[in-house]
Amino acid sequence: MKKLFQLRSRKEVYWTRQWLLGQIKGGRLSLRYQLIELLDTAEQVQKLVDQQLDAEARTRLQKALSARRAREVAGPTRAKTSPTTRMVRTEVTALAREMLLTVAAARGITTSELIAKLLEDEYDKVAR
After folding, report:
1. Residue 127: Cβ-neighbour burial (10 angstroms; 0-12, 13-18, 19+)
2. Regarding predicted confidence, which is higher, 126 or 82?
3. What is the DSSP string of 47-60?
4. What letter would DSSP give residue 61?
5. 59 or 85: which leads in pLDDT
6. Is the pLDDT of residue 1 over 80?
7. CA-CA distance, 93 to 99, in Å (whole number)?
8. pLDDT for res 114
């Protein structure tokens, strides 16, 4: 008897499409890319999974989705990351980055906290 496969959100349809494309690219599934790219709804994905995937592939997909769900529930993976912190890109030299990381680690604070402490006085003057 087939195990029931259920997608819980639109995001999981996207994850499943990405997983299927990766499996095709890796040679573990023999489906056409075009077929996967046409999948748009949970019902279409459900139909494809039921008709095209064997029990082993369905199990791999279910494990991948479970891991994805767990990572999403876990939230930020960095220990010092707070909900108000987000990753941004800033261009700095390699030396400046190394200095920033070293000083922040020595003080036991995050790089964001270090930057804020170093710049807060001058920022207050400029912002006025």
Report:
1. exposed
2. 126
3. HHHHHH--HHHHHH
4. H
5. 59
6. no
7. 10
8. 92
